[in-house]
Amino acid sequence: MTFALHPNLQSKRHIIDLPLCQVFIENEKHYPWLILVPKKNGIKKLIDLSIDDQMIVLQEMNIVQKILWNLFSPSQINVAALGNKTPQLHIHIIARFETDPAWPHTVWDHHVKELYSHDDFDKITISLQQAFQSALNM
Question: Which residue of 1, 25, 28, 130 has the fewest CB atoms within a 10 Å radius of its CB?
C-alpha cells in the first residue's frame, strides 16, 4: 500500500524525505515551523510505531531541531505531537523567539497567521533543503 498523507497535511510544502519521515514546512512567517510525518499508514501516536521506528523518529527529530537551531538561532525549540484535528501522527518542531507574537505562550495561542511572501517562502525552503542535505551527508 502506498503511503497516504492526511488531507490536512497535503497543503504543507514538502522539504525532504528522511529515512522514516517526510518533512514539511508550515507557511507561517513568525515561526520557522517544520512538521515530521512518519511514512507509515494508520499511525496516530508515537506508541503506534515499533520501538525501532520510534528510535528513528527521535534521531530525525534531533536532525530537525539542530537544523532549526543552526539556521535561525531561536530562543527555544518547541516540539509537539497533538493529533486533535489531524489524527495522522505528525510532529511539530517550531523555532521560537522571545520577540515572536505568541511568546511565551504556544503558537496556537497566536491566532493571526501571516504567510511568507512567495519569494521568502522559496528562499527558506531552499535554505532548509540545503541544510538537510549537508546534515545527511556528514
Answer: 1
